[in-house]
Amino acid sequence: MSVFQNFSGTESKSTNTDYTLFLRDVSNGVVSSATIDRNTGQINGVKRNGESFTTIIPYTDLALMDELIENNVAVFGKEPEESSLLTSIFISWFPMLLLIGVWIFFMRQMQGGGGGKGAMSFGKSKARLLGEDQIKTTFADVAGCDEAKEDVSELVDFLSDPTKFQKLGGRIPTGILMVGPPGTGKTLLAKAIAGEAKVPFFTISGSDFVEMFVGVGASRVRDMFEQAKKSAPCIIFIDEIDAVGRKRGAGVGGGHDEREQTLNQMLVEMDGFEGNEGIIVIAATNRPDVLDPALLRPGRFDRQVTVGLPDIRGREQILKVHMRKVPLGDNVEASLIARGTPGFSGADLANLVNEAALFAARTGKKVVAMDEFDKAKDKIMMGSERKGMVMSEAEKTNTAYHEAGHAIVGRMVPEHDPVYKVSIIPRGRALGVTMYLPEQDRYSHSKQHLESMISSLFGGRIAETITLGEDGVTTGASNDIERATDIARKMVTQWGLSSKMGPMLYAEEEGEVFLGNTMSKSKNMSDDTARAIDAEIKSIIDRNYERAEKILNENRDVLETMKDCLMKYETIDAKQIDDLMARIEPRPPADWVRDNKDDNDKPSGGAPVADADKKDNKPVQPNIGNPGDATN
């Protein structure tokens, strides 16, 4: 275009002349023809001798023009400014350039370009690479799992100074498997390792490997390890590895299942014919029981690090870590909060601090005080208050008797956890709540403690029977009966706590496992043994039912007084329960106020009254699983 516009020849050349000379030529009859452009004022003409000329009509005062012409003044017209050559080329060629750019973009997409989203990029790894400066988490941000931190701290030393171990012939573990309940900080601990070691950190989820196309998972595993080799030494973190690491042969697809191909490729990459020096694989799961044995053998995941629920000291340390970001009141003590939160994980404690901050923000406070932490703890343990739910007076009275029965029996039976709080305000799915808190962390349960729990679970139903009669008993004890029966059955069949049945396992054996669930069960006992087990379970329940009934009959006056106290205050704590059991006038709760308008006593934040179903009225207690399992 440039050559064409600048160097193309013309048939004739025209000379630019002034306007006054043009007028004289017109007067003298020299001009033979002329063409005038109305928009620009340009005149293109030809003289009689064949000479071409060009002039511009100047836009000015006509009187001035006449005077200039009479005085033989040369007057020139100026051509209007035109756009530059580059601008004109761009304007004329812009549509074509746009089409070419769109065509190139779609071609790159079809060929697998454009950021790895094309049809040929399914086999590429989806692992995200975090650089050395992108990870700010250190071991100082991880609390409550000191033993786990010690197990993984040598990884940091190896990545920082590998010759320290190689001199003595030591070899760093190829893989670290972090096992523990949800929310205990497995992912956080892996990030802390990368933050301390200052090495590249690849992170991916187990579900990112498997796609709808066959062979994609295995291809992504190969690509991930190829990328890791280029950045060695580095860390690969696979979260929820049980998504691809389940036992092989359990599914319907057999050995050709896509998930099993992915697992096979991962086994080869971790410890196959070719080694992966300088690559440490860290995986996290809360289901180690479903993982393939080949994945757990030495040389692959050499070490299993258990990240369990924190004890009271660990909970205090975790609370202090999360409290750094919150303005605290002078009366906040992390040790007291840690004592009152047994069984809480690190995620639960972080949620506790956040809920306390939200409570303080709602009331416009500048700091978070101990009251907000107590409210947050009650909300997490017992559920949110259902202030919009209305209960009839009879339903409310029945709930008060029920919860008072739980509290009184729980106080009187031996080795039972202390009663922390009793409330008839609907929370969560329950119409009323009796909350117990252990004095210390429990890792096992005695026979006496379990039988005391069964007695306290039946306290609510017995209180309804004593006060309202057999016809007045409601469905509120359905969950209590279920939990009491479960404890009694495990005492007989699993825990060997029945003198009649002896220390034997009578539980049914699991059959074939399909996708992590039991398809069938095999019965390994005779019918006579099954009848004896049922009789022993009923004997344990009847014995503890009669004990709870005797306690409530002997403390009928306390039952009535506690019912009246719950009807008045709606929520009582351990101090009021101590006064009631001592048969003295209970002190009012700290948050209780008097409504001057109606002249009626009511607690702040109390629930209104109307009809409701009492299906889920139950006491809240720590979960009872295997006494030897610290996670329960």
Automatic annotation (TrEMBL):
Binding site residues for ATP: 180-187
E.C. number(s) listed in UniProt: 3.4.24.-
Organism taxonomic ancestry: Bacteria, Pseudomonadati, Pseudomonadota, Gammaproteobacteria, Alteromonadales
Function text: Acts as a processive, ATP-dependent zinc metallopeptidase for both cytoplasmic and membrane proteins. Plays a role in the quality control of integral membrane proteins.
Organism name: Paraglaciecola psychrophila 170
Compartments where found: Cell membrane; Membrane
Entry note: cofactor: Binds 1 zinc ion per subunit.
Start and end residues of each stretch annotated as Disordered: 587-632
PROSITE patterns found in the cross-reference section: AAA
Membrane association type: Multi-pass membrane protein
UniProt xrefs under Gene3D superfamilies: 1.10.8.60, 3.30.720.210, P-loop containing nucleotide triphosphate hydrolases, Peptidase M41
Subunit (UniProt): Homohexamer.
UniProt GO molecular function: ATP binding; ATP hydrolysis activity; ATP-dependent peptidase activity; metalloendopeptidase activity; zinc ion binding
GO biological process: protein catabolic process; proteolysis
GO cellular component, one term: plasma membrane
UniProt key word Transmembrane: yes
Compositionally biased intervals (Basic and acidic residues): 587-602
Transmembrane segments: 85-106
Active site: 403
Positions that bind Zn(2+): 402, 406, 480
Protein name per UniProt: ATP-dependent zinc metalloprotease FtsH
Gene name as annotated: ftsH
This protein's record includes keyword Transmembrane: yes
Keyword set, alphabetical order: ATP-binding, Cell membrane, Hydrolase, Membrane, Metal-binding, Metalloprotease, Nucleotide-binding, Protease, Transmembrane, Transmembrane helix, Zinc
EC class (word): hydrolase
Entry's family note: In the C-terminal section; belongs to the peptidase M41 family. In the central section; belongs to the AAA ATPase family.
